[in-house]
Design brief:
By secondary structure, this protein is mainly alpha-helical. Helices cover 42% and strands 4% of the residues. It has a two-stranded antiparallel ribbon. The protein is globular and about 30 Å long.
């Protein structure tokens, strides 16, 4: 097929539509609840509201707190104490649990191994041994 033909444009348009169709955000849990609506309004004003199941409750707490300075810098009023608690309660209810099967792939755990002849204060982090490539 020659470049610049009308049929080539149709294929490109169809490909773009198919790819963009898969980029739609998933529906939030309890979408009609006051907490979900508050989350979508306050957090979705700057970015899409992320699925609460993508992070643990502890990760959400860190993320929400990290947004306050960004909101101020953008000229947006940060969350009130009440809004913060309502949003965090909602995110915690639907957060990824440590035993959830949707969790990210396991990362190698770090272990603290004291240096020979040293104290625990002289410990260093070591990754567990890995298998050599086959």
């Amino acid at each position: 097929m020659a470049r610049g033909t009308p049929l080539g444009g149709v294929w490109l348009l169809a490909l773009c539509a198919a790819l963009l169709g898969g980029c739609r955000a998933a529906a939030l849990p309890e979408p009609a609840s006051p907490a979900a609506r508050l989350y979508a309004k306050r957090c979705g004003g700057c970015h899409r509201p992320y699925d609460p199941g993508t992070m643990t409750a502890a990760m959400w707490a860190v993320q929400v707190d990290a947004m306050a300075p960004r909101m101020r810098a953008a000229g947006t009023v940060p969350l009130s104490v009440v809004e913060r608690e309502q949003i965090l309660d909602y995110l915690r209810r639907h957060a990824l649990s440590n035993s959830d099967s949707r969790s990210a792939p396991a990362r190698p755990s770090l272990s603290v191994v004291p240096k020979p002849g040293g104290s625990a204060g002289g410990a260093k982090e070591q990754l567990p041994p890995t298998k050599p490539p086959a």
